[in-house]
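Cross-check.
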Amino acid sequence: MWARTLSGGRNQVHGTSEHSPAGLHLGKSDAETQRLILQAALLRPITERLLREAGIVPGMRILDLGCGAGDVSLLAGERVGPSGAIVGIDRDAAILAVAKARVEARNDLPQISFHVASVDAGLPVPNLFCESIVGGGPDSPLYAWFASTLSTIAPRWIEHGIATSEEIQIGTYQKRLEDAAMNMCSQLVSPPQFCAWVRKQ
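Predicted model, tokenized:
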């Protein structure tokens, strides 16, 4: 669970999401970082709705707690513009290096900075909404997202005796998943994505 503190003047908006930052449950590998970036791209419409619902406007100052690879910071930075400020905080220095490199590559978001830290946000009871992605058909990005997530989780399953590598067969999982969905004319449903925010006067 990570939290976002979004502030502008006297009004403060706090938000949370169910994404896990790298290092808490799913590891700190390069593969996990790329999985989070893919996940953020797929969830971008949901995240944009969260920022709209939270009332993020130009000039606001945002503290992004558990910012990971910086995807939400990037979207929020576009909304607050050069007159605003985004400070991303994460306790994983390696993933923050990725976030910094992505901002530098953009070269148009000087209002975003990142720092290694761990903060207890102490958020009050939030407003909430929940959405899931539904998709399928040939070349759906959901197949790669599900497969990369399973690839990250699989070592823990094997370690705890939940499944064996022979049962998982991670190398062929994405293709098998796509084949099964196509053969059944079926759709995939993502895990629910919980978004939350609180405005304080």
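DSSP finds six helices and nine strands in the chain. The beta strands are 2-8, 11-17, 61-65, 85-90, 112-116, 127-131, 134-136, 187-189, 193-200. Passed to J.P. for a second look.
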